[in-house]
Design a protein that fits this description.
7-stranded mixed sheet, glyoxalase III activity, Class_I_gatase-like, Type 1 glutamine amidotransferase domain-containing protein, alpha/beta, lyase, 228 residues, glutamine amidotransferase
């Protein structure tokens, strides 16, 4: 049977902490995942907290951060149209999906943690043995998800994700709404990061796979795909 994956993207286009600062989906974190999934014959559905448009983080469209994978998507009208009509998480039935994969970009810091739809889908998929993945800031989408006993999904799990040091080096720490690395640790996650910032780092713990930053996008998607 064909493997089917939900891919979560943001609806947020500006920092609530500084409305003049634009944000959104980090495009290559989506496109490396879809490249891997398509190579393996997986089907995927784009979902978001509110449904509809997923804006693009401007930084992700600049050289050298916009790589060949992102350019191919950006130049394809059909693919770009998919980002205008994502499904709302509340309206999606997890039945029939084998995994859920969270993309990043700073927009997710604002709308992923408050999305009860994303929490429900993640919990249902994880509870029946499905795979959960997150790249970069995507792990913001796992902060509020719980197990059936009410404990945090991340408690005791080995993970990675965009680090606070990388926020500082990226010039975002002053307007970031919170320190997601610290929040994950406070939930009991066994968080680790690469020795150097902005280099590829992927952590797998059973059927949970996380990647630290955009440089980790391809490797994280490939490791996630091996779970099927």
């Amino acid at each position: 049977m064909t493997t089917r994956i939900l891919i979560a993207v943001t609806n947020t286009d500006r920092f609530a902490t500084r409305p003049t600062h634009r944000t959104g989906l980090w495009l290559s974190e989506l496109t490396h995942a879809t490249d891997v999934f398509e190579e393996r014959g997986f089907e995927y559905t784009l979902i978001s907290p509110a449904g509809g448009r997923s804006p693009l983080e401007p930084r992700s469209l600049r050289f050298p951060l916009m790589d060949a994978s992102a350019r191919r998507w950006h130049r394809d009208p059909w693919r770009m149209a998919r980002l205008e009509s994502t499904l709302a998480a509340d309206e999606v039935d997890s039945a029939g999906y084998d995994g859920i994969y969270f993309t990043g970009g700073h927009g997710v810091m604002f709308d992923f943690p408050s999305s009860t739809g994303l929490q429900r889908l993640t919990g249902e998929i994880a509870d029946r043995g499905g795979a959960v993945g997150a790249i970069c800031h995507g792990y913001c989408g796992l902060l509020e998800t719980t197990r059936p006993d009410g404990s945090p999904l991340l408690a005791g799990r080995r993970i990675t994700g965009f680090s606070w040091n990388e926020e500082i080096l990226a010039g975002i720490s002053r307007i970031a709404p919170y320190d997601v690395e610290q929040r994950a640790k406070d939930l009991g996650a066994d968080y680790s990061k690469a020795a150097l910032p902005f280099v590829s780092n992927t952590v797998a713990d059973g059927r949970l796979v996380t990647g630290q930053n955009p440089a980790s996008a391809r490797a994280t998607a490939e490791r996630f795909a091996t779970l099927f």
